Amino acid sequence: SVTNGGNLDVKNTSNASTLSLNRDGQLSLPKQPAFQAYYANNSYVWSDIADGGYHLQTLNQTRFNIGNHYNTTNHRFIAPVAGTYYFYGQYYHNYTSNYARAAAAIFVNGSQMSETWTPCWETTGSAHTAITLSLAVNDYVQLYTAFYDSNGTSNTYNVYGGALNTYLIGHLIG
Fold first, then answer.
1. What are the CA-CA distances from residue 154 to residues 20, 57, 92, 122 (Å)?
2. How far apart (Å, rounded) are the C-alpha atoms in residues 88 and 29?
3. Eight-state DSSP code of residue 51
4. Could you tell me which of 55, 47, 169 has the C-alpha nearest to residue 105?
5. Taking the model in full, what pTM does it have?
6. Mapping DSSP to helix (H, G, I), strand (E, B) and coil, where does residue 95 land?
7. pLDDT in tens, the chain (174 residues)
8. How far is CA 147 from CA 6, 53, 100, 134, in A?
9. Burial code of 62-100, b = ≥16 C-beta within 10 A, e = fewer?
10. Which ranges of the chain does DSSP label H, i.e. alpha helix?
11. Dist. CA 33–CA 169, nearest whole Å
């Protein structure tokens, strides 16, 4: 229906707006799947060895979760519809070494789809990755991280939690 001087609103059977187009051409899709998952604690949430192996980030809280497609129990975003999705993930660590690198990766259905390694020479910091993916219905996406120190693969590193430090975001593009 066209209302409010030229706005177009499409509603579902529950009378909830699923698409709105205003007279200035701005489109709103309030039911479009989107989320940000993060660690609920603002502290170091876990440690591991700097051997370069990937480890699942068990993000247990959401800032927003439109459609409830991110599960804080199994730490997966599950695609509700086939389409193109955008994901960005990052984590913060406290490790410093002239020989260290940190990585963030996006996995789909248990297989690695992206990987970004960042040098960590003499400073703490973060690693991040981003990717646009074509997903089928029920494909699942997770954030994994890795850390490698060629001078000390038995050393440990810590991952810092919190909504500002370690998180995964994603949304359906179309």
1. 55, 20, 20, 18
2. 20
3. B
4. 55
5. 0.87
6. coil
7. 555 567 777 888 888 778 788 888 888 888 899 999 999 887 777 777 778 889 899 999 999 999 999 999 999 999 999 999 999 999 988 776 777 888 999 999 999 999 999 887 766 778 899 999 999 999 999 999 988 888 776 777 778 877 788 999 999 999
8. 54, 7, 7, 28
9. beebbeebbebeebbbbbeeeeebebbbbbbbebebeeb
10. none
11. 11
Q: For 80, which DSSP code?
A: S
Residue bearing tokens 């919190």: 162
Amino acid in position 59: L
Q: Are 159 and 145 in contact (CB under 8 A)?
A: yes
Rg (CA), the chain: 19
Q: Reduced to 3 states, what is the DSSP secondary structure of residue 141?
A: strand
Question: Which amino acid is it at 64?
Answer: F
**Tokens 């927003």 belong to residue:** 64
Residue with tokens 């604690």: 41
